[in-house]
User: What shape does this take?
Amino acid sequence: MIEHAPVSSRISSGVAGLDELLGGGFIPLRAYLVRGGPGSGKTTLGLHFLTASANPALFITLSEDEASIRRNAETLGIDLSKVHIINLAPDKDSFFEEDSYDIFSPAEVERKPLADKLVSGVERIKPQRVFIDSLTQFRYLSADRFQFRKQTLSLFSYLKNLNITTLFSTESSAEAPDDDLQFLSDGIIEIGSRSDGRMLRITKFRGSDFAQDWHFFRLTDRGWHVFPRMRATEHVREFQPETVRSGVPELDELLHGGLARGTVTVISGPTGVGKTTLGLQYMKEAAGRGERSVIFTFEETLGTLFHRARAIGVPIDAMVRQGTLAVHYVEPLIYSAFEFAAMLREEAECRDARIVMLDSSKGFQMSIRGEDILTHLHTKCTYLKNMGVTTILVSELDTITGDQFKATEVGVSYLADTIVFLRYMELEGELRKAIGVLKNRTSAFERNLRELEITPYGIKVGRPLAQVSGILTGKPTLRRDSPA
Amino acid sequence: MTCHQPGVILLEPNAANLALMRETLEYSGFRVVGLSAATDIAAALTESTNCMAALLDAPPHEPGFNDACSLLRSHAIPFLMVLPKSAMPLARAGLSLGARAVLAKPLGRRQLVTILRALVATGP
Assistant: This one.
């Protein structure tokens, strides 16, 4: 049975999201491999690792010179003042040497001086963290694969005995694969890429559980930002079951009180029928209770949304100013689903958001770029439920009216605890709106449809439309014995 | 360094190679007479004493190479040739000029020292 190192004994990788994937960070006094192609961010991760603690740290470079390492770190805002650099790369004069030797192999000539320089540096600096960039260069200084393996094991053992945790990079290629180093390392962080961005995964971590699968990360002007794949079941928060009212009595009557805290409500309907407005109504009411709500809008720009909110009497500017509302425009082709998940977590865990509206499921579908929307939505909705957040998912239907009633457009109805649908209806040549409830898992609900109006003073929900039939078939008819 | 140390003539046009071999051989107790051209061998044999072996890192078609080999033979100094792996077809030419053996680059330091010690111990 594997004994897992407790989180308290872990050391940070220097990247919060990566620590989360590692179950709290690296286990100390071991050697970890970061592997990936050129420009994948290996060296930057090394910089984060070295500066994650205040103790002396050592960067052993076999490729980039010290000046450019320090310059690059500075541009990323990484302070290398406590990081020593030993440069084992060839100096600039090597290029201009008239004769380069060929009488002995590089392993005969270069290895010992480099090893001496490395050892003297380590013993002088006494670091607790070492980053070697890259260990592949040592391969060319070994007579054969066996010697390389032996020397690498010896190096790891030497560093471990000096209480050093090591991160090292490799440059794997068909000519020089790094399979042997993968076997020798205690853990492996593999960097890859997809058309929509950089990805990483942990493929090995001796003595520890770790989050498998690929995870998204960005290399920004502040270095690494890792966005772990969301696992809803890992996040649970105790919360008080309660009813979330809209502040519109007739609307609350439809739901026999309101929405339930920690549930998912799908508001479906054709374009312009008032789905976002309906969601805003719940947020306006929540703001009155001092609760924070968040809108993630995937399609509508902030300017349009704010303008629309003001036009129906939602004090959106004041709500944002007071912190009872946040509006995030998630541009689908810029943000990935992983980053969106991080934004959700930030709002739920750090800012105590109580209501989250995703507007809309179609826009969200664009942001996940071809991946299965149900998988992503399921994870995010489950997470929000576990955290006691009331979720409103706006689902836009393509059809304005018609005889084929559809609850939602992209098959998200199974995620919903509650489905509220809005429809247009044409009554005697006039286009009007209706609202109804199709499903409510947490309580009974009114079976009648009601008329919905959006006025400059907000939402107005009428009496039950008992005299109108055929709304869902797209052919409403008004019984003549009563006024509409 | 004293003249009691066995002397080794190194014909090595590559300065980097010469420096490395000098360091290796002097560390192992040899006295090194380094030359960059085959035509310098005559002068070296005149000026240096106790030269007991030679190592020629040059192809047999190098100007003055034949004469250098003749001189070494006439002084009863055993010599080795060193060639890049890609030039090993020229080994036969070197052997016909009197080389005891033709070694392919890169050499191992220990291997080189061992061979030269054996050569010096065996004598002409």
